Amino acid sequence: MSDSFTLNHDLANPIELFQMGEAHFFGVSGKKDLKKAVELWRFSAEKGYPPAQLKLSVAYHKGEGVMSDLKESLNWLTKAALAGLAEAEHNLGEAFFSGSPYGEKNIPVALSWYTKAADQGFPEALYKKGLIYKDGLNVEKDLPKGLEFLKLAAGKGHVLALNQLGMAYFDGDIVEKDLAQALKYLQLAAEGGHAQSQNAVGVIYDVGMGVEQNFPLAAKYYNLAADQGQPQACFNLGLFYEKGKGVEIDFTLSAKYYKLAADNGDFSAQYNLAVAYDEGRGVKKDRAQALKYYKLSADQGSAPAFFKLGAAYYMGDGVKQKYTMAIKYWNRALELGSMQALTFLGLASMEGHGVPKNRAHAIECWRIAAEKGESGAQYYLGYAYDHGLGVEKDHVEGLKYYKLSAEQNNHVALYTLGNAYFNGRGVEKDEAQAAEYWRRASALGNDKAARKLRKLENQSSD
Asked: What is the C-alpha radius of gyration for the chain, rounded to an integer number of angstroms?
């Protein structure tokens, strides 16, 4: 097939002209030549060949090989659609549905063009009709009809339709909840490369929803989605590498995936990455970076991040100490349900930092948080009873709250209980029990407990 312009275009086959244009567009025989491509497509389009008319429409729209001209673009797109080219019918439907790029939005007209394309089995048009009826987009909502078109699109492998159906069966809002059907559609979408579906399948195997829990399989799907930069999958994979779920523990990889998710706006990943920077886990310890990511997470409404920022200002850790800012952040965290923030608001009231000193209010805060199971509040309430701060001194009541806190592995409570048993404070003296509490506290990193335990063991060996 010759591509010479000495060819008599009037006699040439429009399909050959179109193919020659394609060859110039993609540079099949050498360097790309968009102008030649457009010229050949024009000869083919003028002979009524719909695929060439569609290509010419796109060229005028994008200004490729020809000056951008939306009027000409719409003209050639309409010709291709009127000739019955399903892709052109769909694209014209898209144009009327969105009002872009030609500036005329008309949903009924859009639906008529989608219908023409759908009648030819064009997957994207079937999908769009499904969405229009499912969501009632400028038409009367018709869920059965919407689902029917989504299933037709899904049957042709349309990944978005597969995802829509999978999530519909997963959520159970518009159809009866069916986890087996959900997994079926989501796996098909995942195999088609749909990142959100890959993450959703990962979640199903991670949690064991309707299937046997399988961390390695969950990790496989999270990896597939994370390779496409899907933020939730990156966060989930970061968590897997941090906890060793389905993979070997690897803090460096954990921080890497947290950062990918965090930099894509995932507030949970931003918080976990901040903790990693704080602790130097998988990344170099960096308080400034930690505070940066706590702030990003808090800006999206993360209660733990608000708490951490409050603690930073209360202690002057990485920022200038400012009690009023601490109170502000802790109140914000409390509004989001943080009992840890309520505990520290109680501490501020007990100490009179940023708020008037008020021991009764402190006790009230701690009692509320303690009843909700907050281990810090349980410890502070125990301390208040043990030392008679805002309440009548009661060592037995103090031990009760220390033990509640210790049950949650609060190392300070464990250390304090060790002291109580060693000294016989509120309980009968019991060095063996003291040693056990100190041992547990020491395992959690409490240096004071480790020193007391060593001293006790040395005395016992003498």
From this structure: 33
Q: Which of 386, 459, 460 is closest to 427 using CA atoms? A: 386
Tokens found for residue 295: 């702030």
Position 206, amino acid: D
Within 13 Å of residue 33, how many CA atoms lie on the same side as its CB?
14
Say which residue the tokens 């890497």 belong to.
256
Give the distance, in angstroms, between the CA of residue 260 and the centroid of all CA atoms in the same chain: 11
pLDDT at 127: 97
Joined tokens for residue 187: 């796996």
| pLDDT band at 5; cut points 50, 70, 90 | very low
266: which 2 tokens?
Answer: 């995932």
> Given a cut of 70, is residue 16 above it in pLDDT?
yes
Cβ-count burial of 109 within 10 angstroms (0-12 exposed, 13-18 middle, 19+ buried)?
middle
pTM for the full predicted model:
0.85
Angle subtended at Cα 404 by Cα 398 and Cα 406, rounded to the nearest 5 degrees: 100
pLDDT grade for 3, boundaries at 50, 70 and 90: very low
**219 touches 246 (CB < 8 A):** yes
Best CA proximity match to 369, nearest among 399, 334, 395, 415: 334
| 260 CB neighbour count, 10 Å cutoff | 21
Contact (Cβ atoms closer than 8 angstroms) between residue 114 and residue 93 = yes
Residue carrying structure tokens 């990003």: 296
Q: How confident is the model at residue 74 (pLDDT cuts 50, 70, 90)?
A: very high
SS (H, E, C) 225-238: HHCCCCHHHHHHHH
95-99, 113-117, 260-264, 367-371: segment of lowest average pLDDT: 95-99
